[in-house]
Every structure is written in C-alpha cells, then in structure tokens.
C-alpha cells in the first residue's frame, strides 16, 4: 500500500516537472480550469479588423474559451446580460432571458401605442427603443450614497458611505427585481408584464423603485452627523 502511494506521488511529481505549463489538467490548482499562461479571449470585432502585429508570444500562447455570455452580436448589451443573471433562478438562464425579452416587448408595444396616440409635435420625444428605456430606468434608480452599520461604544450607527459602481448597479437592479416579485398580481399579471410596468415608471422617474433610492438618500442625509465614523 505504501509503495503504491509512493508510486502515485512520484508520477504526480514527474508530470508537474515535465508537463508544459499550459497543460490545464496536469498542473491544476484547486478548481482553476485555465493556467495563468493562457490569454484572455477578445470578443471585440474592431480588434480583429486592425492589422496584426508581429508578436511571437501571442501566436504561441493558447487562448481561453470565451464565456457563454460573451458575444460579438450588435444585440449583446452587458447591462442587459447582467440584469438577466439577476433575474435568473436555479440556473435557468433561458427562462430568465425569455422573461426579459418579453418585458422589452411589452415596453415597446406600450411606447408604440403611445407614439401613435400622441400629437404630431410630441412624437419626436417618445422613445420606442426598449433597451434605451431600460438603461434610463436603471440609471434613475441608481443611488449615489448608501449607509453602513458601524458599531461604536456598544451602539450601532448607520454611517453614510459612498457606493462603488458595481454596488450602485446591483442595488438598482436588485430593487427593480424585488419590487416586481413582491408587488405583482400573481393571478392576473405575469412577471414580464409587471417588470415592464416598473421599467416604464422608473423611466419617468416615478414608482416605488425610484422611491427606494430617495429613501436611501434621506437615510444617509439624516445620519450625516455620523459620517466621521467611517474613517475609524
């Protein structure tokens, strides 16, 4: 038994020494699939339109596989992809993508109907692009500052603190999804239709999702006297 274990150890050490550094299966660290010598994939079409530069290392180093969410399509929007990931439950990305697409369809139908019913002088100001409406709605829901619980002298204070871009985006998207799930009519209203309604309200800077942003700003302003606790 001891000899067999020694044999396995020797074989593993042999492969670690002689195997090329770019072989992912022979020199794997924990759950890392790609070795550090692999290049990141480039999914930008403009990169491939440029003349190639002479770089021997770039031609000899292997390239990682692109993620399933990466695409060079003109219809691929990183913010929409991120929002779809937040909508997804139990790993069912296809269902989440179909829900978001249906919500965009409801938004476009609503805006087209509004466009045809509006007077001629108002039509140029009605946006019928659901992606632009989505970006504007999320931007209107994005907070600037937040609060952080800080314990001082046995008491917990809500201390105002600036938010990172990722945190701001996460809060806006999470509020939008939470409001859709909590306050929709489960019998007569689909998730996609309620999501479209919330997006349209946020696009007009109205609705409960925008109110959450203002409530957070009010809470931060009410606790601005404790702002110095953030630096201790």
TrEMBL record:
The residues the entry assigns to the signal sequence are: none
Q: Which Pfam families match?
A: Ribosomal_S7
Name the Gene3D superfamilies on file.
Answer: Ribosomal protein S7 domain
Instruction: Print the keywords alphabetically.
Output: Mitochondrion, Ribonucleoprotein, Ribosomal protein, Transit peptide
Gene Ontology cellular-component terms listed: mitochondrial inner membrane; mitochondrial small ribosomal subunit
Can you tell which superkingdom this protein's organism belongs to? Eukaryota
- Give compartment(s): Mitochondrion
Q: Which CDD domains match?
A: uS7_Mitochondria_Mammalian (cd14870)
State the InterPro entries in the record.
Answer: Ribosomal_uS7, Ribosomal_uS7_dom, Ribosomal_uS7_dom_sf
Keyword Disulfide bond in record: no
Q: What is this protein called?
A: Small ribosomal subunit protein uS7m
> What is the species of this protein?
Branchiostoma belcheri
* Organism phylogeny: Eukaryota, Metazoa, Chordata, Cephalochordata, Leptocardii
């Amino acid at each position: 038994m001891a000899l067999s274990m020694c044999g396995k150890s020797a074989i593993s050490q042999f492969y670690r020494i002689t195997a090329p550094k770019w072989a992912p299966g022979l020199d794997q660290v924990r759950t890392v699939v790609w070795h550090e010598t692999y290049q990141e994939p480039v999914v930008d079409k403009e990169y491939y339109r440029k003349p190639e530069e002479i770089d021997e290392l770039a031609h000899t180093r292997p390239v990682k596989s692109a993620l399933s969410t990466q695409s060079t399509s003109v219809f691929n929007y990183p913010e929409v992809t991120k929002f779809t990931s937040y909508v997804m439950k139990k790993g069912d990305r296809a269902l989440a993508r179909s829900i978001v697409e249906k919500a965009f369809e409801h938004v476009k139908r609503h805006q087209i109907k509004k466009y045809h019913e509006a007077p001629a002088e108002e039509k140029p100001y009605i946006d019928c692009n659901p992606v632009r409406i989505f970006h504007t709605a999320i931007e209107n829901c994005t907070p600037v500052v937040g609060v952080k619980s800080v314990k001082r002298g046995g008491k917990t204070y809500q201390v105002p603190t600036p938010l990172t871009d990722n945190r701001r985006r996460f809060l806006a998207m999470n509020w939008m999804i939470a409001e859709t799930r909590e306050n929709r009519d489960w019998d007569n209203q689909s998730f996609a239709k309620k999501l479209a309604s919330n997006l349209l309200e946020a696009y007009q800077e109205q609705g409960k999702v925008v109110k959450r942003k203002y409530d957070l700003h009010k809470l931060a302003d009410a606790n601005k006297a404790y702002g110095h606790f953030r630096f201790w």
